[in-house]
Design a protein that fits this description.
335 residues, alpha/beta, Rossmann fold, N-(1-d-carboxylethyl)-l-norvaline Dehydrogenase, domain 2, 8-stranded mixed sheet, 15 helices, 41% helix
C-alpha cells in the first residue's frame, strides 16, 4: 500500500490526512510542535456538515515535526500557507525519495510552480481543496461545505485514487487545472469579506450587503480574466461570470436560487477569519493580491480588491472591529 505524507498539518492537512488514516491508509502528518502536542493529547476528531464523524486515538496517528520523516513517502500533500511554500520546498528537498509525487493542496495560483522550481527532480502537481475546514476544538476539524479534491491529472496519480475514494475524498482530475484554480480564487475573494464581518459564512452570505461587496470584488477579477481570455471552470450550477448577478439579488430570492451555495455548516467560517482571530498573517496577498497584480500588469486598477486588502491589513495590525455589510459597502464606494 503506498505511503502518503501531509506536510503542513494544520486544519486542511489534519482533516485530509486524518480521513485517509481513518480509511486505513498509511499516513504521516508533519507539522508544528503546537499541533503535535494537540494530537498527542486529543487525537483527531473529524466531522462534516452531513453529520458524519469519526475519532482517531493518539496512538493511531503518526505525527512528526521533522521534515526528514518524509523520506519513505510515495505521495506528499503540501498544505502549508502560501507564504510558506518556498520554505516547505527547501525543507522537503533533501529528504524526498526520487519517485515521490508532490501535490500542492493550497490556496492561490502559483504554489505548484514554486514547488516545481525547488524540486525539479520530482513530479509536482497542482491541486485544490474546494471545501471549508475549521478547527472547532482542540484536535477537532470540521468540513463545513461541499466539494471534492481537484488535482492536475497525471498517470502517476492513478495508484492513489482508490485511497482517496475510500476516504470519501474522491479526486476530480483535470487536464488543465488553471480554470479551476481561477474559479476557486474568485469564490475565495469572500474570505476577506467573511473575515471582516466576523460572522459564520452562512450568516454572512445570507445578507445582501456582504454579497454585494463580494460581487464587486469578483466583477473586477472576471473583467480582467475575460480580457486575458482565461477560461473559468464551472464550480457551481451557474457559470462563474453569472455569479455576481446572483449574489446581488434580494435575500429571499437568493435563498431560493442559491440553496447549494448556502449548503454550509452554520458555524463554518473562512480560514482568513481564523487567522485574524489567532493573530496570524492572512493569505490576502494570494487571493485579492492576485487580482491586483493582474490589474497592474494590464495598466489598470482593482479598487474594490485594493480596499479589501487595506482593511485586512488594518485588521492584522490590531483593528478588530466587525464590519457590517452596509459599512463595507460604503468603504468600497457602494451604497
Amino acid at each position: 500500500m503506498p505511503s502518503i505524507a501531509v506536510f503542513g498539518a494544520g486544519s486542511i492537512g489534519c482533516y485530509v490526512g486524518g480521513r485517509l488514516a481513518a480509511a486505513g491508509q498509511p499516513v504521516l502528518l508533519i507539522g508544528r510542535q503546537r499541533m503535535a502536542e494537540v494530537v498527542a493529547a486529543e487525537g483527531l476528531t473529524l466531522s462534516d456538515y452531513h453529520g458524519w464523524s469519526t475519532r482517531l486515538a493518539p496512538e493511531h496517528i503518526r505525527f512528526s515535526t521533522e521534515a526528514s520523516a518524509i523520506s519513505s513517502a510515495d505521495l506528499v500533500l503540501v498544505t502549508v500557507k502560501s507564504a510558506d511554500t518556498e520554505a516547505a520546498a527547501q525543507s522537503l528537498q533533501p529528504h524526498l525519495k526520487r519517485s515521490a509525487i508532490v501535490v500542492s493542496l493550497q490556496n492561490g495560483l502559483h504554489n505548484a510552480e514554486h514547488l516545481k522550481q525547488r524540486l525539479p527532480q520530482h513530479t509536482v502537481l497542482a491541486g485544490m481543496v474546494p471545501f471549508n475546514v475549521a478547527q472547532q476544538a482542540a484536535g477537532h476539524f470540521h468540513q463545513g461545505s461541499e466539494g471534492g479534491l481537484a488535482i492536475e491529472d497525471s498517470p502517476l496519480i492513478q495508484a492513489f485514487v482508490p485511497a482517496f475514494e475510500a476516504a470519501g475524498l474522491p479526486l476530480e482530475r483535470h487536464a488543465d487545472i488553471r480554470p479551476v484554480q481561477w474559479a476557486k480564487l474568485l469564490f475565495n475573494l469572500n474570505n476577506a469579506v467573511n473575515a471582516l464581518s466576523g460572522l459564520p459564512l452562512k450568516t454572512e452570505l445570507s445578507q445582501r450587503a456582504y454579497r454585494r461587496v463580494l460581487a464587486a470584488a469578483q466583477r473586477e477579477g472576471i473583467a480582467l480574466l475575460q480580457a486575458r481570455q482565461q477560461k473559468l471552470a464551472k464550480l457551481s450550477p451557474l457559470p462563474a461570470h453569472w455569479v455576481p448577478a446572483l449574489l446581488e439579488v434580494p435575500d429571499a430570492v437568493f435563498r431560493l436560487a442559491a440553496n447549494k451555495m448556502l449548503a454550509i455548516d452554520p458555524l463554518a467560517r473562512s480560514s482568513m477569519q481564523d487567522d485574524l482571530g489567532a493573530g496570524r498573517h492572512t493569505e490576502i496577498d494570494y487571493l485579492q493580491g492576485e487580482i491586483i497584480r493582474m490589474a497592474k500588469a494590464a495598466g489598470q486598477s482593482a479598487p474594490v480588491n485594493e480596499k479589501l486588502v487595506s482593511l485586512i491589513r488594518a485588521a492584522e495590525a490590531g483593528d478588530h472591529r466587525k464590519w457590517s455589510g452596509e459599512a463595507l459597502l460604503a468603504a468600497i464606494g457602494l451604497r
